[in-house]
Specification:
This protein has 221 residues and is of the alpha/beta class. It is built from eight helices and seven strands; from the N terminus they run H-H-H-E-H-E-H-H-E-E-H-E-H-E-E.
């Protein structure tokens, strides 16, 4: 590898890290890109629509980035509450500005936190959303079990993946969807199904429910 190619590769790696955990000036730029990329806006709006949020729902988004899906959720949970956690202070700031009116109305609450140290919630949640973040979670099955504990019986979860690796194809998305389905099943979720949005590369949204008997098994007649 030439010196120029090595420098380019390091620059690409540094930008990828910023999309994972935005920091400083470069992180603010990464947030701007995420907020204005057309595919990101389509992906988040589509995922929220699949979650079928009702007006009184209490919803949590993990890794909300610049707050696009938070805004969509707040438009639907008009009498409920939308919570969001993100491990990037830069994203908390950007999402806070984007959702300032709903925050002032006490309908949205954003916190600087990570999935392995979830804040407490006063009441059970109705729905959980995570977009392109599960792959970065430590011990994702254990994290999903904890989220299932926070959901009410019959609560819903949506895990979204749009692979961003070089050369990603429909097959890459299909593999990612299967991995998410396997994680959810191991964590005790049921009624697992996958939907696909035809972008480039395609987006997978895997939906699942919290069993109503609270055991990780479907209700028995």
């Amino acid at each position: 590898m030439t010196a120029g190619a090595a420098l380019k590769q390091r620059a690409i790696s540094a930008m990828v890290r910023q999309f994972h955990h935005p920091r400083g000036i470069a992180g603010r730029m990464a947030g701007w890109i995420m907020a204005h990329r057309t595919s990101n806006r389509q992906r988040n709006s589509w995922a929220v629509s699949l979650l079928e949020v009702r007006p009184t729902d209490r919803v949590l988004e993990i890794g909300f980035g610049p707050g696009l899906a938070i805004a969509e959720l707040a438009l639907r949970a008009t009498q409920g509450h939308v919570y969001g956690i993100d491990h990037s202070e830069v994203m908390v700031q950007q999402a806070g500005r984007r959702n300032a009116a709903a925050i002032r109305a006490h309908r949205v609450h954003l916190a600087h936190a990570s999935v392995d140290e979830l804040p407490s919630f006063d009441e059970p949640l109705d729905a959980v959303l995570a977009v392109n973040s599960v792959g970065f979670w430590p011990d994702p099955v254990e994290r999903l079990r904890r989220l299932r504990d926070l959901l009410r019986p019959a609560g819903r979860i949506a895990l979204v993946s749009q692979p961003r690796c070089p050369g990603a194809t429909r097959a890459t998305t299909a593999r990612a969807a299967q991995e998410l389905q396997d994680l959810l099943a191991e964590a005790g979720f049921t009624e697992i199904q996958a939907e696909t949005l035809d972008l480039d590369p395609p987006v997978a949204c895997v939906l699942a429910g919290n069993p109503t008997d609270g055991t990780g098994r479907p209700d028995q007649p």
